[in-house]
Design goal:
This protein is an alpha+beta fold. 40% of the residues lie in helices and 15% in strands. Strands 2-3-1-4 form a four-stranded antiparallel β-sheet.
Length: 169
């Protein structure tokens, strides 16, 4: 269970960090804490699994990256970790993770996201990735984005409300 101050901290974090040189100091002021106290609470929330991760949400299209491809591979489970580690080392790979297969219709287990200025660049980067990582023999799909959705961080409060509704029947 978390206390009221940590709950307020989560609410502030899900709004995004203030765009200042010391964002945790700004948050600390709002909570009447020190920066160190905020950092300790964040670390504790992460350790407890309440916060999974903190990261930056980048609007790639505003930066000129108009071609975005999710590439999925059917890699044997025994090789996922090794190949995933290798794939994630490429600077043009923005995300690389494993997901459960969904039967014969969607047998893919390794996912990676490549952002590029145009489709041709992304396809050249993908060819380089496949060659460098020895992925030629694995079934794959390349899924280019057709629409840009608003990206944001997790909404912990909304999840909490959903869980209450479900548990109250």
């Amino acid at each position: 269970m978390i206390d009221g101050v940590s709950r307020q901290l989560i609410e502030l974090l899900q709004q995004g960090l203030p765009l200042v040189s010391r964002p945790y100091t700004e948050i600390a002021k709002k909570l009447h804490l020190t920066e160190d106290e905020v950092l300790i609470r964040v670390a504790k929330l992460k350790q407890q699994g309440i916060i999974k991760r903190l990261g930056v949400v980048v609007n790639h299209r505003r930066l000129g990256y108009k071609a975005n491809a999710m590439v999925v591979f059917d890699v044997p489970d025994s090789l996922i970790s090794q190949i995933g580690d290798h794939v994630s080392q490429f600077n043009f790979v923005n995300l690389c993770y494993q997901r459960p297969r969904q039967g014969d219709q969607w047998p893919y287990s390794l996912y990676c996201m490549i952002h590029g200025k145009n489709k041709e660049t992304v396809l050249k980067q993908l060819d380089h990735l496949i060659e460098s990582c020895g992925l030629q023999q694995f079934k794959r799909e390349v899924l280019f984005s057709k629409q840009c959705f608003k990206q944001r961080g997790a909404l912990y409060q909304a999840l909490e409300k959903q869980q209450k509704v479900i548990s109250n029947g």
